[in-house]
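Task 17 of the worksheet. Students: predict the tertiary structure of the chain below and write it out as structure tokens. Keep your answer in the requested format; marks are given for formatting as well as content.
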Amino acid sequence: MPMPTVGDPAPDFEAKTDQGEILRLSELRGQVVVLYFYPKADTPGCTTEACGFRDDYGAYLEHGAAVVGVSPDSVKKQARFKEKWSLPFTLLADEDHAICDLYGVWGLKKFMGREYEGVHRTTFLIDQEGKIAQVFENVSPDRHSQEVLEAVTALR
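Model answer:
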């Protein structure tokens, strides 16, 4: 599926959280949502990115923003990742990559001459009305949270 662009309604979905509960994106309507997609829990880049969101989480809360991470990992792996790194926000298990497909972030990747299917590290900033306010592609894990936080601040 093509990636949603600025102004598009954020595609709704439901998925299991790291706690095994069901979350629907539409349940978060009325607040800003940072929906970030990452390739694999507890790998160096994904840990760096998640810890950035963790370290800035208080500022996100101050701006009324929810942070939600999505990867094709299992509920169990998401739970371990969340606990190991004390992540205060929700992680979603997208094992069949249906949400990744819905947001156009699943596709061909290349690493060290090898091609494979996987998640393209991408973040969607969703406004209070449920529309895409900004899309961050090919993000740098080490400074991504600050970049998104600036956009959240400007959105409010």
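Marker's comment: The CA atoms of residues 30 and 129 lie 6 Å apart. The first strand starts at residue 14 and ends at 17.
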